[in-house]
Amino acid sequence: MIRPRTPAAARLLATLAALALTTGATPASAPRVAVEPAAVALARLDSLQSIVKAEEVRVRTSLGLEANWDRLARAWFQVGDHAKAAHCLDRARAIGGREFDTALLSGRVARSEGRFAEAIDFLDRAVHMRPDDWEAREDLGLALYLSGRMTQAAEHWDLARSLPGSAAPDRSGLLDAMRAVGDSAYSVSGRAHEWLRFVRDRTPGAMIVPARIGGRGPFLLRIDPGSPECVLGRSLARELGLRTFAGAPSGAGAGGVAFDYATLDSLSLGDATLHRLVVAVTDHRSLAGPQGVRGTLGLEALRRFRFCLDLPDSVLWLDAAADTTPPAWVKPGSIVHRVPVLLRGTHLLVVYGRVNGAPERPFLLDTGAPGIGLAAPASTIAEAGIALDTTQAHTGSSASGPVGYFEFRIGHLCVGDACRDSLTGVYGTFAPRLELNPNFRLAGIVSNGFLARYRVGIDLAHRQVWLVVP
Fold it and tell me: Looking at the 3D structure of the chain, how many domains does it have?
């Protein structure tokens, strides 16, 4: 997988997707896996819960103080409990909704739940309260981007980058492409129901479909819902005669892969066509050839549909995004699990699940990493009562080089009410910053080893994932 943005999550997911599972001792060239003691990991979790308890005491002493509910909401976000944080913000708005944090955090909640118009209203209010706050501008830009208002999104992201103390990323090239497509990006025409069979490939778990670009092709694209924009290899961009916008000099995606950006007039999947797209352009060797896979199909394109990755039957299903009719990929007699989903950032799909008898935690959903059910930090492993065996190291390869990790056995893994037993987990590939993020804690990544049994339907318009057992 190749990821054009959010380098932290990008490098992690790319590592998992490219992981070649090889048993044996870790070679000297591979990085050693730093193992966090279970007691230390659990103590960190306890400290987060202690912050929640302290803020709950503060709220009880002054139930009518809006700022206290905001502080409690932030504490719940640190633990990774979206629902409880959202409830606190409901209380804060009922008191008056006059605080900056109430507007900012309410905007983040609405955006994660796909209520983009509400998110824009909240975040616009936050920006008016503090025009020089770069985080408010950054969050508003993201909400505008997700709603398809590319010109305004670029304006706010540009401002966020320029403000004092800003930690906003350098989006050179991307902002130029966004301005070029304007506010009519990603419009859809053609059939309301379409399906494409995956093209056979030697790569385990690869989901590859033919696509026409600007009426030319077909070209083979690898489905990659764990990335935002579509990505094209440089050779295909030249073949299509695309004008590219230079990315940031230090602009690296997964594993140090740099990206430029361009726009497409159209991209067709069967008889369904997307118009006016932003795409990333890369020199990565996996997309460099004139034959084979020439690019990737990211979530920004896929989420314009109610789509299904039919892993058992190797089919991509596309329905109109607002469709509420029973999908064709749910066959009579199928067992259906519907799981609420959140959209974090531009493309991270978050669901709640549990390992063994541990509490429910937020996990990223990623269709890559064949054979791996879950990548997790030490805290998740310890909470589940799993003893990590560090006597047998494994090695894999990623875009950034060799990767060391340990395997562990999972007795029982659930996403919502969809459960599987006896899966393989990995420790050492989950980026600590995803767990330690003060805005929202993630506890692991559920991958292909769990999902391969299901037809995985993504319906962001109705905020749900369908896990369908054929």
Answer: 1
